[in-house]
Write a structure and sequence with these properties.
This protein is of the alpha/beta class. The chain has three domains: 5-133, Rossmann fold (3-Layer(aba) Sandwich); 140-302, Dihydrodipicolinate Reductase, domain 2 (2-Layer Sandwich), CATH 3.30.360.10; 346-430, Alpha-Beta Plaits, CATH 3.30.70. Helices cover 36% and strands 24% of the residues. The protein has 14 helices and 17 strands. It has helices at 14-25, 27-34, 65-70, 86-97, 107-124, 140-147, 162-174, 178-188, 196-199, 202-216, 235-243, 306-321, 363-373, 405-417, and strands spanning 5-10, 38-44, 60-62, 76-79, 101-104, 128-129, 153-159, 226-227, 246-256, 262-272, 284-291, 295-302, 348-358, 378-383, 393-400, 403-404, 426-430. Strands 7, 8, 9, 10, 11, 12, 13, 14, 15, 16 and 17 form an eleven-stranded mixed beta sheet that branches. A six-stranded parallel beta sheet has the order 3-2-1-4-5-6, sandwiched between helices. Strand 9 and strand 10 form a beta hairpin. The longest helix has 18 residues, at 107-124. The radius of gyration is 24 Å and the shape is elongated. The structure holds NADP nicotinamide-adenine-dinucleotide phosphate. NADP nicotinamide-adenine-dinucleotide phosphate binds at residues 11-16, 44-47, 50, 65, 80-82, 87, 105-107, 132, 136, 304-305, 309.
Length: 433
């Protein structure tokens, strides 16, 4: 066997601790696979006194991840601290600049700085592996970087945030509203004390920006992702959607049109019950990739948690131990194109629309007339007098034919001012119809 691969593990929390435990438990097998031993030779966290669940006695302690990243006695810098900037970024830059391989689970870092970090990696002849950054335990990066390479990808779409999927699943199953389910999710540890990154869609957007780059050969462009979270989804919308044959999911979708422009969007979407993504429930993640030859491939699995996420990090480390290296975003940096963005106003699709129409004769006709005048054509419409407030308003729910986003937004503005509409209407896009 050749010399051991020396790992510097920065961050010893949920994922970092898991990596330490898996390398310890699977050491002999991984050494046989890799043809060399993998040793954790340096560690770094904030609190030196914490038990990390694996033997750290042989590892050199560092207080500062940047010092560890520069240290000549490590071959691979494993960044499991988190955050798009600060220590994580400085340390990864330091490691790559000194020609060390980097493995990270940090989607925020890769989404914001992926292109610059990949350029540094390329310059130093180092690997930048980030399998765990997208959909945790699902090997979607490997699938796109290796197994699906023959295919031109036209669309990648997925359930990329387990917290949101858990909340939406619970709302559907219990009929409870968003706030109550979120509070329960926080008690159960499925949602952070500050859930805004998850429920607001930013976490899914980080992952989508990375997937879009891999799918379309473009530089990661997080700033072009349209982002809407699930905070405004109500139990009533989930119920009405079910009546029409749909579930509501937070989807991240990236599509390239025939002219090469790319649409990247994260928002709640109605998904037909028969679609594969509709049946993905709870904290589970799923990614669906449409390739020219392979058709549609859907990968489903755990998107977070110690075991799954650490296992993806370990696989990235084993690749380095085996001498397997790929450009971080498939193509050499010089070949990555700047992404031409399709503005959200140019998006086109069917919409779910729920509004509260004044409870008086003729109001429904007025609403449909206003929609027709706004150029929105209705495919299905129902009113539910039993679910409104007698004498005041009744819910009207409709599905539109394919409509441009800009047209829909104009229609919404008109409806919001309309004398027969008593509150701001709710609009949710329908995926894949
Ligand atoms: N948790 C998941 O399921 C999951 C899934 C996919 C991706 N990720 C990503 O994995 C990364 C790590 O997440 P995590 O859940 O493991 O976080 P975590 O449990 O909060 O652990 C963070 C670790 O970083 C250490 N740390 C924080 N600031 C530091 C600093 N300035 N210098 C040195 N060490 C520092 C902490 O030290 P102390 O322990 O001493 O406080 C802790 O060990 C993040 O990028 C996250 O987005 C996580």
């Amino acid at each position: 066997m050749t010399t051991p691969l020396r790992i510097g593990l920065a961050g010893l929390g949920t994922v970092g601790g898991g990596v330490g435990k898996q390398l310890e438990a699977e050491g002999a097998r991984l050494a046989a696979i890799s043809g060399r031993e993998i040793v954790v030779s340096a560690i770094c966290a904030r609190d030196r006194s914490k038990d990390r669940g694996f033997d750290v006695s042989g590892a050199t302690w560092f207080d500062d991840p940047v010092d560890m990243a520069k240290n000549a006695d490590i071959d691979v810098f494993v960044e499991l601290i988190g955050g798009s900037d600060g220590s994580a970024k400085s340390a990864v830059e330091a490691a790559l600049s000194s020609g060390k391989h980097v493995v990270t689970a940090n989607k925020a870092l890769v989404a914001h700085h992926g292109a610059a970090l990949a350029a540094l990696a390329e310059k130093g002849g180092a690997a930048l592996n980030y399998e765990a950054a997208v959909a945790g335990g699902i090997p979607i990066i490997k699938a796109m970087r290796e197994g699906l390479l023959a295919n031109q990808i036209s669309q990648v779409s997925g359930i990329l945030n387990g917290t949101c999927n858990y909340i939406l699943t619970e709302m559907e199953e219990t009929g409870a509203d968003f706030g109550d389910v979120l509070a329960d999710a926080q008690k159960l540890g499925y949602a952070e004390a500050d859930p805004s990154f998850d429920v607001g869609g930013t976490d899914a957007a980080h992952k989508l920006a990375i997937l879009a780059s891999l799918a379309f050969g473009t530089a990661v462009d997080f700033s072009s992702v349209y982002v809407e979270g699930i905070e405004a989804v109500t139990a009533a919308d989930i119920k009405f959607a079910a009546e029409f044959g749909y579930r509501i999911k937070l989807l991240g979708t990236a599509v390239q049109n025939a002219q090469g422009a790319i649409e990247q969007r994260v928002h709640p979407a109605l998904v037909a019950h028969s679609a594969p993504l509709a049946s993905v429930s709870g904290v589970t993640n799923a990614v669906s990739v449409d390739g020219g030859y392979v058709g549609t491939v859907v990968l489903t699995g755990p998107g977070a948690g110690e075991g799954p996420t650490a296992s993806a990090v370990v696989a990235d480390i084993v690749d380095i131990a085996r001498g397997i290296a790929f450009p971080p975003f498939i193509l050499p940096q010089s070949e990555l194109q700047p992404a031409e963005t399709l503005e959200m106003g140019d998006y086109s699709g069917a919409y779910y629309l729920r509004l509260e129409a004044a409870d008086r004769a003729g109001s429904m006709a007025e609403v449909t007339k206003a929609l027709a005048e706004a150029d929105v054509s209705i495919e299905r419409i129902v009113q539910r007098p039993d679910q409104g407030q007698d004498g005041e308003w009744l819910p009207v729910v409709l599905i539109t034919h394919e409509t441009r986003e800009a047209t829909m937004q104009r229609a919404l503005a008109l409806l919001s001012e309309h004398a027969d509409v008593v509150s701001t209407p709710v609009v949710i896009r329908i995926q894949g119809s």
